[in-house]
Amino acid sequence: MAVTIRLYISLVLLSGLGTSHFLINPLRNNRVVDGIEIYSTKINCKVTSRFAHNVVTTRAVNRADTAKEVSFDVELPKTAFITNFTMTIDGVTYPGNVKEKEVAKKQYEKAVSQGKTAGLVKASGRKLEKFTVSVNVAAGSKVTFELTYEELLKRHKGKYEMYIKVQPKQLINHFEIVADIYEPQGIKELNADVSFITNDLMNVLTKSFSGKKGHVSFKPSFDQQRSCPTCSTSLLNGDFIITYDVNREQPGNVQIVNGYFVHFFAPQNLPIVPKNVVFVIDISGSMSGRKLAQTKDALLHILNDVKEDDFLNFILFSSDVTVWKENMVQATPENLKEARNFVENMQTAGLTNINDGLLKGIEMVNRAREMGILLDRSTSIIIMLTDGEANTGESRVDKIQENVKNAIGGKFPLYNLGFGHDVNYNFLEKMALENHGVARRIYEDSDANLQMQGFYDEVANPLLIDVDLQYPQNAISDVTQNNYQHFYDGSEIVVAGKVVDLESNSFVADVKGHGALNDLTFTEEVDMKEMEEALKEQEYIFGDYIERLWAYLTIEQLLEKRKNAEGEEKENLTAQALDLSLKYHFVTPLTSMVVTKPEDNEETQSIADKPGEVDGDPHFIIEVPEKDDALCFNIDAQPGVVLNLIQDPDTGITVNGEIIGEKKASSEPNKNKSYFGKLGIVALQMDLQVEVTPQRITLWSGGRKSSFTWMDTVTITQNGLSVTINRKKNMVVSIGDGVTFVIVLHQVWKKHPIHQDFLGLYTVDSHRMSTKTHGLLGQFFHPFDFEVFDVRPGSDPKKPDATMIVKNHKLTVTRGSQKDYRKDSGQGTKVFCWFVHDNGSGLIDGVHTDYIVPDLFYHSPIQS
């Protein structure tokens, strides 16, 4: 029985704090159950400078004589971005495409309504998302699932952690976990802890590190996986945790690769800055029982860790507000003893007045600072714990946020702990983020007290306050967040950006902050050329990892800012994050991944070799089959200008294009892009005109007018003309026998504040057009020759320059690439080409302004 499927996978990942986690559960059966055998599962982790690239691969075969369903489950961290998912069935691979969420959602819902197979990511536990997909596999057929995701590992209590939940629930012929780590600073320590380890498994768990490289592998044999010598069940069920840290001879480390930099900053051995902590605790009726007991236990343990230079106070809120002390008090032994007694006697009652509780705590800190009670070189924080929603006093969440923000005034952070699932966590998170803090959910479980203590431990030891990371002016751009209110012991600050000045030999990073004793400045200077060469030599590095790290961090921070933004600001942040998500193929809260195996009658139309095309800015791509190469150039024209693309005076065929710009012009030079917003096709001998816009297609033929939208799927044939509209993708226009154009529709997010929909034109067949054909594209329908030599380094290390002789002109050209969107209007196919600068000067006949025409249907008369 042959397998015919269409699979839509809609993935929604939430950003959050945490380390690297995933769970492998490829089949919930024994080795061969109901005819299905999972014969291989591999987890490959490659970490380069904290940036983890993880690939999970599972292979299965249907041993039955009928079609069977195979499931693939993976749990991965909420902080991760999926970058790819593929299915390979009988040697044919079906890749995933990342699309704007609303576009993918419609496809997903359609698939579900038709009973098609669908995959989803959903929450699974505290820090994980579950990815699940099932597919029907024909008898005797094999299927391979491969999921790739990436994330930046955060330093937590002095360690980077990768947590793998292993739970295959069956014996697998080939099971392995392999992690390769490369850290330019050198690896200080590397550990692997396995909760289900036995004496027999000890020898298959290997870990080693030397210098900058570390390696961990776990490859149990089939028999070693057995829970007992004669059992058919697997003992692989538990936690596989890899932790490591790096050497820190200097407080910071700067790395530069391919025009991007990353700066890791984590100074050691600094005295702790005294802190002033106000605990604002919910004691409403819903906190009774185990919640209150666990809260008390956590606070009592925290009081054991408070240092004598610290100041503290407790604010309790229910229907009313109760304070422990009228002012902040120092953590002397006597005061701590009294504080423990106060905590032990806390009792629950009443409603939840979050507003008054927080404002009282903020007032306490502000007044103590004004009265000079607090140490000059100290920092203040407020930690609020609640298990419910505001239901007395001021209960409007937007008003509470406003009150709290005005009262704090940016002077210190607010940390919100939401206990259980009845809290309005979005409200707590927004309020914390706009006051330079974070929110954390405390799960109702036996270890809730440990969760609270763990959070406090993260903020218990501030080493620097008001940290500002500075870089050379005019040498960088697009820098991620580079100022922080606190640097806590055991954590790390990471800043990334683009390097604009690639000619400079050095890169200087300065970090300034206030310490416990004095103001500190840390300076690091690196040799850019030596750094790039050193990193390029390392075999552990995958791709442009710093560029992808920068994109990951930028998207993560844009999404955080978006949570508190409104109106135009929110739209701009959304647009920026969406653009980066699509460009770098990240599944984020704004995007989804779609994997489709089309039905036979819906396969993408195959398009033949073409002599020329125009798409994008507008980009012109001229493929030269005789040279097995391509040339490309851009035309810089103002919106409203109409350009002649193709004109054949013998056949009477003309194609013109009208330029459109962005919705909102950028104030930065060279940042405004232009596109083709209208195309006009004229065929005089057929008395035909076609106007194409991103909204509709209009035909005039023999005095009759016909109009269609891009929502249509239709073929029109009349008087030698054939027009086929492929819904929301492209349209194919054939004029007689031997002239065919493909027009591609490019759609952007409809609420995008900058970009708008545009068109691309591809010439598929031009062999019936005459030798007199001209125009920006038409002139290249005739054979021409060029020669490229003297290839040399260019201003961009990834794009060499060369000398080209073409049409008796000697030009400097640059190797680059453009996108061909004929088969995939979303991602496109990369076409490498020699780029001709200055609007194609020297390649096109004359200058680009010679091709400006007065209107969309302008044409020269037919030659007799």
Automatic annotation (TrEMBL):
The protein's name in its UniProt record: Inter-alpha-trypsin inhibitor heavy chain H3
Classification via SUPFAM superfamilies: vWA-like
Highest rank taxon of the organism: Eukaryota
Function: May act as a carrier of hyaluronan in serum or as a binding protein between hyaluronan and other matrix protein, including those on cell surfaces in tissues to regulate the localization, synthesis and degradation of hyaluronan which are essential to cells undergoing biological processes.
Signal among keywords: yes
Signal peptide, first to last residue: 1-22
Entry GO CC: extracellular region
InterPro entries xref list: ITI_HC_C (IPR010600), ITIH (IPR050934), VIT (IPR013694), VWF_A (IPR002035), vWFA_dom_sf (IPR036465)
PROSITE patterns assigned: VIT, VWFA
Localization of this protein: Secreted
Keyword hit for Ligase: no
Xref: Pfam families: ITI_HC_C, VIT, VWA
Domain VWFA as annotated: residue spans: 276-459
Cited PANTHER family: INTER-ALPHA-TRYPSIN INHIBITOR HEAVY CHAIN FAMILY MEMBER, INTER-ALPHA-TRYPSIN INHIBITOR HEAVY CHAIN H3
Keyword tags: Glycoprotein, Protease inhibitor, Proteoglycan, Secreted, Serine protease inhibitor, Signal
Any one Gene Ontology BP term: hyaluronan metabolic process
